[in-house]
Amino acid sequence: KIIELLRENTLPAERFFANYRCAIMEVETKFKVLNEEFSLMYDGNPIETIKSRIKSNESILRKVIRRELPFDLDALEENLDDIAGVRVICSFVDDIYKLADCFMRQDDITLIKMKDYIKNPKPSGYRSLHLIVAVPIFLENEKKSVKVEVQLRTIAMDFWASLEHKLRYNKKIAPEMLAELSRELSECATESAELDFRMQNVKNTFLGKSLPRRA
Ligand code: 0O2
């Protein structure tokens, strides 16, 4: 029933997704502005790329069933934090924390939840900083607060997450090999994190800490 509801081109469903698309635009713009500002203040841009997505109907449905949520749009809005997702891919680990800090200090951003999978990686090896925030969008006659999940990660963390996702969900992998695959992937994540740490040190050693440029 929920999938029919989401596929319908009726006004409530259209409005439901439009609000999330607007919230994504707001958050993307905030990070683009910070990228510009940081490149003026320090040498170089901290953001490599920004990728955004609206959660697919199938993925929404899977979550609704897994969490036994009620089948209506208000319940989805209330219970799902990641219908709108913005992924900010950074060059260095310290860029992630600097950007997150500036973003969260903006007075129209409300932090709902922060999950630091960089300091506390998942058992899979997954690393990223997740921020669930509420951002206002300004519509014709109202201002609405919309939730967005922001995932901040380095190029290395993104590389690992994207390949891990491809490998883990590959149907050709024999079930008896899954435990070994998990171990391998977790080791790759550790090596990848060591490389991030080393690149950060290289930057600090050869470019110094990111001190503001003189005017
Ligand atoms: P998609 O396609 O991005 O929508 P839940 O969201 O219910 O699973 P929780 O605790 O609310 O659980 O979310 P969590 O684990 O903090 O963050 C979920 C998202 O983080 C995932 O989204 C992935 O994008 C990413 N993620 C978390 N763990 C892993 C992992 O081990 N490997 C990879 N590659 N990504 C991970 P979705 O909903 O799974 O998918």
From TrEMBL:
Which pathway does this polypeptide act in?
A: Purine metabolism; ppGpp biosynthesis; ppGpp from GTP: step 1/2
Q: Which organism is it from?
A: Catonella massiliensis
Give one Pfam hit by family name. Answer: RelA_SpoT
For this protein, the record's Gene3D superfamilies field holds:
Beta Polymerase, domain 2, Nucleotidyltransferase
Q: Which SUPFAM superfamilies match?
A: Nucleotidyltransferase
- Report the residue ranges that make up the RelA/SpoT domain in this protein: 52-175
What is this protein's record name?
GTP pyrophosphokinase family protein
